[in-house]
Design a protein that fits this description.
about 325 residues; alpha/beta; Nucleotidyltransferase, domain 5; Hexokinase, domain 1; six-stranded mixed beta sheet; 12 helices; about 25% strand
């Protein structure tokens, strides 16, 4: 690693496929050389995305030019090489495709595992404090993000001076509604979507934001149009802030995240009013049994849209150092 490890990082979401070129020195200090975003849905496969990236020529290296490729995907990773993302029209199999793409070594991880690893990079130096806390240096850090889907992961100390990222599919668990009015929204979502189960991915997401606005106002709007109407008196903003605060509280309690909680993902990053709204704080701190515990958990907003790239790059550095990256 004397010349610097050359890392191609990818963060593949349901809407955008982000790529970044990094170098890492022997101590793991990352330098971002450039990024490139492509629309995920415009490619029929992951290899097509990487080939388009090469044709774009927007990064200093790609494919065979990297020492290691780190791919974060918005879905569960199976057997270390495969994923069938729920919000992407194609599956991914790096064991099958890495050689064709020129990857000499590679690592596949969940996109929110990458967001968790990003907490150990310089990205956190740019995060905004939303709620104060008293973080434990070796405490678990929870990461929750609302975008195309609802992502959740935890960064856990490994007891040997390093960290592990625990990926989850918790956004596909049933969302907890808490009042008669909210149950009316639950019935509305079921009718509008034809789904029997209302999960977090249908509430604290862009599509959920549009459904919520339609329920409250009768207006059909895109998530971007809804967010453009956010203001001090917006009922949609208040409800969405409360729902996101609840999703964060539930995950903070499930992980006992005494290292803090980080809100990532596109909606809050582009619309920080969601986490700054009083309804978010009130809901996050509200617990009949663990209010004192929650008062210790600080909340930060990571608005860096490339955080997943930083986390994937950091994970691949750790893997390259430990010899756990897969050789093509």
């Amino acid at each position: 690693m004397t010349r610097g490890l050359r890392i191609l990082a990818a963060d593949i979401g349901g809407t955008n496929a982000r790529f970044g070129a990094f170098t890492a020195d022997a101590d793991g200090r990352l330098t971002l050389l450039g990024t490139c975003w492509l629309p995920t849905a415009e490619s029929p496969s992951f290899p097509d995305l990487v080939e388009r990236l090469g044709r774009e020529g927007c990064l200093p290296f790609a494919g065979a030019g990297a020492d290691v490729a780190a791919v974060a995907i918005a879905g569960p990773v199976e057997e270390g090489s495969r994923s069938a993302p729920p919000n992407i029209a194609w599956d991914l199999d790096l064991a099958r495709d890495a050689g064709r793409l020129g990857f000499s070594r590679w690592l596949l991880l969940n996109d929110f595992a990458a967001q968790a690893f990003a907490c150990r990079t310089e990205v956190m130096g740019r995060a905004e404090e939303v709620l104060p806390g008293n973080p434990e240096p070796q405490g678990v850090v929870a990461v929750v993000g609302a975008g195309t889907g609802l992502g959740k992961a935890a960064l856990v100390p490994d007891g040997r001076g390093s960290w592990l990222a625990l990926a989850t599919e918790a956004g596909h668990g049933l969302f907890p509604f808490a009042s008669d009015q909210e149950m009316a929204f639950w019935r509305f979502v079921r009718q509008a979507t034809g789904r029997a189960q209302v999960i977090g991915d249908m509430v604290c997401t862009g599509s959920g934001l549009s459904l919520l606005h339609r329920f409250l106002t009768g207006e059909e709007r895109t998530p971007e149009q809804v967010a453009a109407q956010f203001g001090p008196g917006s009922a949609t903003l208040e409800w969405f802030a409360r729902f996101l605060g609840r999703a964060c509280r539930e995950f903070a309690l499930q992980t006992v995240s005494l290292g803090g909680l980080v809100v990532a993902g596109g909606i809050a990053a582009r619309n920080p009013a969601v986490v700054r709204h009083p309804a978010f704080a009130l809901e996050f701190r509200d617990s009949e049994t663990h209010a004192a515990l929650l008062a210790r958990i600080g909340v930060r907003l990571s608005a860096d849209q490339d955080a997943g790239l930083w986390g994937a790059a950091w994970a691949s550095f750790l893997g390259a150092r430990a010899g756990t990256c897969v050789a093509a």
